[in-house]
């Protein structure tokens, strides 16, 4: 039966990669529905994302692709399957709510396994959508102990990505290491401006004329992970920092949802501390 | 000696085109520096732009490419060469001036052969840059007669593109036909809003909150040609239409220069009444 | 007891209006918290929005203001009170959902009285928020008969504004007349481009590089009412019209919510077929 | 004879300021053409810009205004007069060229007294516009000695503002102090991101998806002065840092020219380390 798959390859650049890879598809009589490549010349690294349709066995295709690309290649052949996500949140509903509405609409492209929060504020909203809500308070707990509880809860689920929908706690290296390239965060500034706490207050103090939002993969370095999407909103002297925060929420939720959509469609490669997005 | 060329192909879509074309490059031991493709599924049309380096004869490469793609294919192998443009203008200096500054800076990527205008206003500016300025007044002349004089002047030059840098006259089908896909215009609205005369006045009357600019290839249908680039600028109730015009000028010049840059880099394919831009 | 009110005045322009109006506030010992004026010179019309705090009787203040401004003045002294809205929708959830999440969050600045829809699709979503949902099918009914049923339902409620959250039916002049300057619509293009049905398909056919959304008051002329807010989203040749529609949804919901917020804060004056927004 | 003036007032906020100031205009039978105020509640500071027309003596008006506002008030009554600017540049022509074209067009709203540069590269361009060009090389000179020469040259001219059109040298506190709130700079990033040298390289290394430009008044703290205008440009993984630089130039020149225009129209108040812009 005819199948469809997304083929993602990244490897050291070499002569003839497009030819060799497209030959594999051609020889197997696969249709290329969509194809994009990029070569990072500075890192000498090749990236390719192809959507193929036809008759194929995933493992055979994988093996054959392996035989034509450099040894260091990272190859994925991804068949259509609804991905699963776990959401972490705190008290704010805008980013979470945007994802919930898309989910209900069938527009999210993922199943939401659960929402975990360090406050109980969002329970009512989440449970209205029949999604499990786990309240794990952090009060009186060390960061490590609280996080261990969160991880224990997370690990009850199978999932592809963890989405921090305004989760206002810093993650430890242990947590980050446990889910490599799987954690997506929304930071409420156009990074690298206003790293750290309360970016809107920082923006207000600095008197900027634009504020922004940044969705990125989480790495050990706070607010330093590979950026997936960014957007900005104009502000002026009439904005208090609360006004900036209010205006910024729209940017935050749209940028997070856009980044999540790109990731769920397997359009995002991590390239060192950057991303390649097709 | 090693050469570099841009290879542009557009043709009916068919199975294996990426493979077949990349095989030609591979067999000739050419390096692919940059490669982008697109398939317009609705029109069943394939577009590809590849930058290759290596040892090759242009005609041989062209012949070999022809042998692997559908008969209707339009193939260009373009070697590095500074393109030439002719500018048409009227009285306003912003779009023209932006191109002149880029030209002087070596940033334009083209030689300016001359400026032709239906007013003498811009002579001083143009001649400061040692560029021939031809004043061809339209007063008391029929459109046809005036245009014949303009064409006569234009045809003194060899050039790749005619750029209408706020040339405020409508071209006849005869003119348009003489330079197919070679005429680039900047229209001072985000088309298709405000087609025709004085778009800023129209925008003011309508009370819009954004104004824009559109660079497009000129076809017989006024303001209906394939769009290359567009941008917008926010406005509000405090803007008179003159204010909109003033604010809009920045958009116009940037959009025209950006479109021109894309065209000069051979990044723009015309696809029916649309463009494909790599 | 100290009170707070928004004072909105629009009238024929005349010398000394700012002085005379601010004198009323000064003589009554009211604080001006915020003050903005605008004079439309073309229409010779004055607009002013002032937030005052202090001790005052609304009717007395109103009378005194009347005595210092031209006879045609439209004066409102609005005390803080949560406004009420009625939502009309069809099948799409994004614009409606965005308003629901803001409502639940306490961020909307209005109470939602009910949602009325010509399809039953959104019932589940709406009822999860404990908001009355009225399904009034249009099938087999003339526009007039269906609308009469909708109006009958609407008139069960008291409300300040009717918000068309992607209500995909054209309203008759009778309906529009019944709720003057009270109906807010979101149109899925940057008006006046792509008036009428399926703007995304129109945008796709035209090959534009930006798409947009426009929130406006509804008047008798379809898509011609005073514009409150607009925004745009960049697109390119890779977008099908379905992709444009998907991308455009974010713009639509943000623009509608932003327009609604401005209206609910009494920041929007209608000025002929335009708006003045403070 | 009827005159026109811009009245700019900033002072500690107090009750009745709008009333008292507009009373002065009313009593003198002056027309208010345009009026905007703002109160910075955090700093308890009042800002007002009014355009008045009528019969008045500037000094008398000034005295009368002084008598109704707090003692700390900074009042300016500015009659129409073409302002004068001095430009500092290095090698790049885009920002300088944009200003030159506007100047030639009569669109700048200022006379250019001269261009001073630490390289001779731009001489040809500048002299084509009949503007004095002073080349003051910095090679083999200490910062202090070079700057003393620049100041000596500057002080040959009378001027209102010094515009740094991509002047790639850091100014000493002595220089900054000599021209308080008179020096406008364009920084090639959306500050406070990428302070310091080569922001595009920094942006490239960080993998951002937007780059920007910031026009600001120069203060002692490098890149920390009050921001006048900012804008951003989208980029992606295909951009080298040279591409970012090229794309960023358009933003730089537009932002600088926009900021300069606001300043020349006396629309910009400095408020601590921020600006209030009417």
Topology diagram in text:
4 copies of one chain form a homotetramer.
Chain A: E1 3-12, H1 17-27, E2 31-40, E3 45-54, H2 58-68, E4 74-78, E5 83-89, H3 94-104, E6 110-117, H4 123-128, E7 133-135, H5 143-154, E8 161-164, H6 173-178, E9 183-187, H7 199-206, E10 210-217, E11 227-234, H8 241-264, E12 268-271, E13 274-277
Parallel strand pairs in A: 5-6, 5-8, 6-7, 8-9
Antiparallel strand pairs in A: 1-3, 1-4, 2-3, 9-10, 10-11, 12-13
Question: Approximately what portion of the residues of chain A adopt beta-strand conformation?
Answer: 25-35%
The residue ranges of chain A in which pLDDT falls below 50 over 5 or more consecutive positions are none
- Quick one: overall form of chain A? globular
Instruction: Characterize the quaternary organization of these chains.
Output: homotetramer
Helix content of chain A: 25-40%
- Give the CATH H-level superfamily of the largest domain in chain A: Formyl transferase, N-terminal domain
- What is the strand arrangement across the widest sheet of chain A? 7-6-5-8-9-10-11
Q: What name does CATH use for the topology of the largest domain in chain A?
A: Rossmann fold
Structurally, how many domains make up the residues of chain A? 2
- Give the strand tally of chain A: 13
Sheet with most strands of chain A: 7 strands, mixed
Mean pLDDT of chain A: 96
Determine the most extensive contact between two protein chains. Answer: A-D, 32 and 32 residues
Count of alpha and pi helical runs of chain A: 8
Structural class of chain A: alpha/beta
CATH class of the largest domain in chain A: Alpha Beta
SSE succession of chain A: EHEEHEEHEHEHEHEHEEHEE
Q: CATH architecture of the largest domain in chain A, please? A: 3-Layer(aba) Sandwich
């Amino acid at each position: 039966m005819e199948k469809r798959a997304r083929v993602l390859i990244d490897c050291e650049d070499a002569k003839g990669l497009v030819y060799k890879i497209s030959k594999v598809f051609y020889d197997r009589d696969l249709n290329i529905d969509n194809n994009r490549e990029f070569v990072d010349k500075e890192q000498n690294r090749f990236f390719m994302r192809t959507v193929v349709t036809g008759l194929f066995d995933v493992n055979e295709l994988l093996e054959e692709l392996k035989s034509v690309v450099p040894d260091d290649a990272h190859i994925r052949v991804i068949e259509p399957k609804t991905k699963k996500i776990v959401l972490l949140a705190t008290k704010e509903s805008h980013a979470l709510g945007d994802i919930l509405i898309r989910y209900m609409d069938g527009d999210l492209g993922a199943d939401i396994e659960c929402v975990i929060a360090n406050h109980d504020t969002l329970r009512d909203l989440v449970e209205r959508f029949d999604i499990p809500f786990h309240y794990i308070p952090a009060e009186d707990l060390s960061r490590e102990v609280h996080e261990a509880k969160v991880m224990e809860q997370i690990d009850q689920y199978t999932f592809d990505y963890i989405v921090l929908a305004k989760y206002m706690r810093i993650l430890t290296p242990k947590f980050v290491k446990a889910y490599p390239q799987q954690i997506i965060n929304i930071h409420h500034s156009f990074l690298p401006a206003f790293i750290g706490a309360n970016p809107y207050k920082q923006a207000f103090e600095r008197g900027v004329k634009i504020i922004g939002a940044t969705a990125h993969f989480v790495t050990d370095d706070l607010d330093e992970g590979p950026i997936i999407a960014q957007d900005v909103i104009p502000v002026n002297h009439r904005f208090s920092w609360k006004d900036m925060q209010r205006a910024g929420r729209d940017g935050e939720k749209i940028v997070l949802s856009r980044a999540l959509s790109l990731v769920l469609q397997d359009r995002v490669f991590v390239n060192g501390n950057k991303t390649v997005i097709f």
